């Protein structure tokens, strides 16, 4: 295995690197420089294994998967990579000799925020698991110059600042200039008879954007596998610019240069909403085309005939953002490799598999045909032909039934429907939790399910227990290892061995100590870094996720306000002190989500200013929730708030991170909460609210009036008074009452309040609480992304592990 054999060797290399990179001796180094040195050393250390991994894959011609995702929310890599090569302790000790504390070095790494939320973080967990399981699998995405915005809270309101995460370079990447490829945009495409009369495509007068790959090594967990995350940067080409300058068109030349560079400039900050902008479509085609061209080039060099592409290569698309891989593969096979439509179509559909991540209609991608056609004329011709052949098949089966065609058309209403393209052009369609996968079949993708029932399957999400337990919570990791040994580290389902210890008083006591310790660590951190004071003896009740109406942070804060009003009226009320922690970013254009942040901060201030309430309650909205802050929060949580409107949260993954850290889920029967509940039962989770089928029935049949609830429930009426604090909140009041509460906040209010009381009741029973905590940890193994990825490998990709 890759190692620095001794501390002495590490120190020698460290001193050399300090000299080479910074011309400094060790004493003169800043913490940031120490970070950069170690990252560079790790990159050097694994380079042999990286090359070796590549060689073995190529030499053995193993089947490989490429995971295409427009987001990879990596989080910091230093700790992960040290853990993966089992060098954390040696490094810590060597640095100590130099007078540095490794814990001071970690925070120097900027958090690469190349994603919005769950979808992007899932991609990051998945490449981690592929390497851990020694599966030949790689990531493909965009090297955004600016990641998700930096969130500041000023006067209670969100302000967005650019996230210049690359400012000081990214020591984990290697630029591969010689592997650059060109991507074409615009121009004209048409078919004309070629040699022998067969139609061939002509594409002319296009612009060329150069795609330059930057490779990031993805290390397996204490094995020698090093896979690759390939991130593409967009550059202009001088040839293209000079071409325009030759005609004296300076304006056009500069416009081209500017546009080309824009493509990889910034990540779109929308989570689960569709942004129909041209630049986003350019991003989507850019990384898909670049990625696929480089895969094909590599494939032909090492594997051979494009006719066998699907035997060796699996292409996975993380939602529809990379769905253009379908027409792009058709283009390459036909226009560049000379294959027939039929052969190309068989290869394409056999290669591609699609994961759907939402049923929210506002998230379904639909591109305007005129824009699509102008930007991607050749790709449009192919999509048009895919659509024509597909509708022909539909017409044959249902002659004369227009509505059947409309439901499943790829081109309809002057728009390209990307989900339809993704389903028609792939061999597998999966949802991300059991409930979600069922809803896809009976609602969202129902007409496709009747056509292709065999394509539909479920792959419940997972999270990497290496980052979310071992790395984030060493205290709990140590306790688990002391109790059941270390097997679970490689086989997380073996955490089940912990379950009986829920009945062991000594174990429960140690677990309680760990939780207390983690709450104190969090409190100390927030005190020092953010000037926030928490009571570590209160219940830590945490909701951290993107701000979204369907996630119902509003329900949470209305309940807090309800408690506040009760305390003001009855200061002697006997409740356990509670700290409600919120964190999450709102898309800059999402008005209601931003106002909800303001509301949370308003309630926080009301409580702080009222002694009667402040003794018992505390609300904090944490600025700039991201992966690294998450790693401090999950270990400190007592209560995991998973309160989305049933049917709306496809899976959720934060719920799983809380579970690994022994928090109790307070949730609706939504997404993967259903499976968490199935694992631990009513006794060890608290479930409330409408069920998914009830929600769906209300949408279909009506029958819910939020005014009725308002009129009949005095608690609801009083809770809504907080919305009179600031005229801004009128918008939320309207959504709840005049727009009939799309997300059933008022409908679920009573049941949520009761569930919160149940949490308190259970918390008073310390023995029962930590028994529940134990059961949750014991059953969390099922939610490791290792389990998810093994299922993808076995059931979708047909992929074997490769020993390095
Ligand atoms: N999700 Br679509 C995102 O984070 N962003 C998106 O654009 C879309 C979905 C989330 C789901 O909301 C969440 O329930 C799920 O756990 C996650 O994807 C990963 O599957």
Automatic annotation (TrEMBL):
EC number(s) on file: 2.4.1.1
Gene3D superfamilies, A to Z: Glycogen Phosphorylase B
SUPFAM superfamilies registered for this protein in UniProt: UDP-Glycosyltransferase/glycogen phosphorylase (SSF53756)
Entry-linked InterPro entries: Glycg_phsphrylas, Glyco_trans_35
GO CC terms: cytoplasm
GO terms, molecular function: glycogen phosphorylase activity; pyridoxal phosphate binding
Short name of one Pfam family: Phosphorylase
Protein name: Alpha-1,4 glucan phosphorylase
Protein source organism: Succiniclasticum ruminis
